[in-house]
């Protein structure tokens, strides 16, 4: 949990157990690793179209749903034209 403190006020990418990819600014977290994101967007990947970004705004993600948290390089992320990116959606994680 202490390692999450370094992500507060930084733009992060969360990959969830159901395969969703959520990007936002980490506003906070708690002892259960629940995460609050501000200015968040879900990125929906497709092999036919570019990446669609769905605005979510302020968003709470339960810690037990998070598979991965990573900090985004904002300059690099903004330089990528998401409309040209084609990718298979991530499948849900099964235990």
Can you describe what's shown?
The chain has 95 residues and is mainly beta. Helix content is 6%, strand content 43%. It contains 1 helix and 5 strands, in the order βββββα. It has a 5-stranded antiparallel beta sheet, with no helix packed on it. A hairpin with a 5-residue loop joins strand 2 and strand 3.
Q: Which key features would you list for this structure?
A:
95 residues, mainly beta, 5-stranded antiparallel beta sheet, 1 helix, 6% helix, 43% strand
In total, how many beta strands?
Answer: 5
Radius of gyration, whole Å: 13 Å
Total count of helical runs of at least 4 residues: 1
**Low-pLDDT sequence parts:** none
How can the largest sheet be summarized? 5 strands, antiparallel
- Give the SSE order as H and E letters: EEEEEH
In round numbers, the mean pLDDT is: 93
Helix fraction bin:
under 10%
Structural shape: globular
How would you write the strand order of the largest sheet?
4-3-2-1-5
Global structural class = mainly beta
Estimated share of beta-strand residues: 35-45%
Distance between the termini: 23 Å
Domain Sm: 1-75
Pfam families: LSM
Protein name: LSM2-LSM8 complex subunit LSM8
Main location: nucleus
In short:
6% of the residues lie in helices and 43% in strands. The protein has one helix at residues 74-79, and strands at 11-16, 21-29, 35-44, 52-61, 66-71.
Task: Summarize the SSE layout with pairings.
Elements: E1 11-16, E2 21-29, E3 35-44, E4 52-61, E5 66-71, H1 74-79
Antiparallel strand pairs: 1-2, 1-5, 2-3, 3-4
């Amino acid at each position: 949990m202490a390692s999450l403190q370094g992500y507060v006020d930084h733009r992060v990418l969360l990959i969830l157990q159901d395969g969703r990819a959520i990007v936002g600014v980490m506003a906070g977290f708690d002892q259960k690793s629940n995460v609050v994101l501000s200015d968040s967007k879900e990125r929906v990947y497709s092999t036919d179209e570019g990446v669609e970004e769905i605005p979510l705004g302020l968003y709470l993600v339960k810690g037990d749903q998070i598979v991965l948290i990573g900090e985004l390089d904002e300059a690099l992320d903004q330089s990528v034209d998401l409309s040209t990116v084609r990718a298979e959606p991530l499948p849900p994680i099964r235990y």
